[in-house]
Design a protein that fits this description.
The protein has 5 helices and 36 strands. The chain is mainly beta.
Length: 531
């Protein structure tokens, strides 16, 4: 989460910059006192929120843009290509031994078909994103054999799948065994079978013969060559066919990270513009029903369900369009505003989760596409919340917490004590109190860093709550030997920030020109023992 208190988080971390300055003082043989600027910086909202999340308005005010994917319904929800094993065996039934010469055929390559049961779907073509074929051979013939495994309707770079496998000869001790796997990534498989009008059908052929470079061999009654080929972990990049009909219900929660670091206090927002978008990226027709949408604050246990006509209504959404591999989705969109919903209370609930219940009905009118349903990997039906929150808000004791790693044991080895002077020229219309806590291995607080007076004053504002001029605050941060000793043994630090906007509960608007100028000056005692 990015938030208006983020400059102070960065500011507090700047304190540790003092330890990196030790080498500027050479190698004296006595204790010295030094006064030096440690950090001088200027922070605006570009430092608080990533540029991709901020939008500058014509009046230079700022809007936070936030996107949240609530629900996704992708290919694996519609169908799954099951793992399948195919056994092929050639057993000699002759009573008398059979003499085979080099190159003699053992198994003729007659086409064979395997039909998959794919959850009611009828697939005509798939492009494999990932998956492999595993071949296991048992050979009881005492001569090296060759096996050609072909899938004529599986092609990659216009070349059909074809593998030549060399099988070791059996011995007097028993049969030989052979196992290998072949990657099928990127292969396009025509599943219409030899007739061209089927579905879910893999056509293949197996040819086995005695190695032409081998010797004449004898085959006894019941000697055999057995081949098992398995298609495993098949994940389609693309699928074409008819995906059947079905109703898919889901009730779950989706993480909502915007307020993750807020642990206390009150936030009031002036306005929120939210679009609830149902996006269809698949070549299927669908009906959608959003049964509920709820703002959930796990910290307080508070829940606020959305009140809006879209809840409980059935939404019809037509199929996407495939433009030569570029999917053009269809979108159903409805806007949530202050005047047509209770979206403001939902946001002011400071949720960390959004609960939802959704029913999706696929192909409600049947196979009206003529078996031309399609779907690409990672695409499908989605429900998104696209939010724009103007940075005009009021905050009362809004408390934010973050935990960072800390290790100054080496850098602070010869520092006896220090006093840090923090100068903050605050151009933001909110005051902020800051505290830094040192944590033990169980994340329990063992000490604090900031003094009792630790508030950076807000900038004064006019009658419209617009900043008149920045306000300077100076904080003194003493670090004695005991405090430093605790810091040296600490590996984590908690940063707690409490924020209050000017003239609460009036809203204050944040402009792109607002910034805070910071200077951190160190007055410290440093010791290096003589050599």
């Amino acid at each position: 989460m990015k938030n208006p208190g983020r400059p102070l988080i960065f500011l507090c971390l700047c304190i540790w910059g003092i330890w990196s300055c030790r080498k500027e003082f050479g190698r004296p043989q006595w204790d010295i006192d030094g006064l030096a600027p440690i950090v001088t910086t200027s922070l605006d909202f570009d430092n608080i929120l990533a540029d991709s999340l901020l939008q500058e308005n014509p009046d230079n005010s700022l809007t936070l843009v936030y996107n949240n994917n609530l629900y996704s319904f992708t290919a694996d929800s519609l169908f799954e290509i099951p793992d399948t094993s195919i056994d092929t065996a050639y057993v000699w039934q002759f009573i008398n031994p059979l003499i085979l010469n080099p190159g003699d055929i053992l198994i003729a390559g007659a086409p064979q078909n395997t039909v998959y049961n794919i959850n009611g779907a009828q697939l005509r073509k798939v492009i494999i994103r990932s998956g492999y074929m595993k071949v296991e051979v048992k050979n009881e013939i005492r001569e090296v054999c060759k096996v050609i495994y072909q899938i004529p309707l599986a092609t990659k770079n216009s070349q059909p799948f074809s593998k030549l496998i060399t099988i070791p000869a059996a011995t007097t001790s028993g049969p030989s065994f052979f196992t290998d796997t072949f990657n099928l990534n990127g292969y396009t498989i025509d599943l219409t079978g030899p007739s061209g009008n089927g579905y879910n059908t893999v056509s293949y052929s197996i040819t086995a013969y005695v190695d032409s470079a081998g010797a004449q061999t004898t085959v006894n009654q019941f000697d055999s060559v057995g081949i098992t080929n398995s298609f495993l972990d098949m994940v389609p990049q693309y699928a074409l066919g008819y995906f059947g009909q079905g109703i898919y219900a889901s009730a779950d929660t989706s993480a909502f990270t915007m307020f993750n670091r807020i642990v206390d206090g009150t936030l009031r927002v002036d306005s929120v513009n939210i679009k609830l978008n149902v996006i269809n990226e698949a070549g299927i027709d669908a009906r959608f029903n959003i049964g509920s949408l709820t703002s959930i604050n796990s910290r307080t246990g508070s829940s606020v369900p959305l009140s809006h006509p879209v809840i409980g209504s059935t939404v019809n959404i037509t199929r996407a369009f495939d433009a030569a591999g570029t999917v053009i989705p269809t979108i159903y969109s409805t806007a949530l505003y202050r005047w047509n919903s209770n979206i403001i209370p939902m946001i002011e609930n400071l949720p960390d989760k959004i609960g939802y219940s959704v029913n999706a009905e696929v192909n409600p009118l049947g196979n009206i596409s003529g078996s031309n349903d399609f779907i690409y990997y990672g695409m499908g039906l989605k429900v998104n919340l696209d939010m724009e929150i103007p940075l005009s808000f009021a905050a009362d004791r809004l408390t934010l917490v973050d935990t960072v790693d800390l290790d100054i044991s080496a850098e602070a080895e010869n520092v006896n004590s220090a006093t840090l002077h923090l100068y903050a020229n605050n151009g933001f219309p909110f005051e902020t109190s800051v505290q830094l806590y040192l944590l033990d291995g169980n994340n329990a607080i063992v000490d604090s860093i900031m003094p009792a007076v630790n508030t950076i004053d807000e900038a004064p504002v006019d009658a419209n709550n617009i900043v008149i001029q920045p306000k300077m605050t100076r904080l003194v941060i003493p670090l004695d030997a005991n405090k430093l000793a605790v810091m040296k043994s600490t590996r984590k630090m908690m940063i707690k920030i409490k924020l209050n906007t000017a003239n609460y509960p009036q809203y204050v608007k944040i402009y792109s020109s607002y910034k805070i100028d910071v200077q951190l000056v160190g007055d410290f005692n440093y010791h290096i023992s003589a050599r």
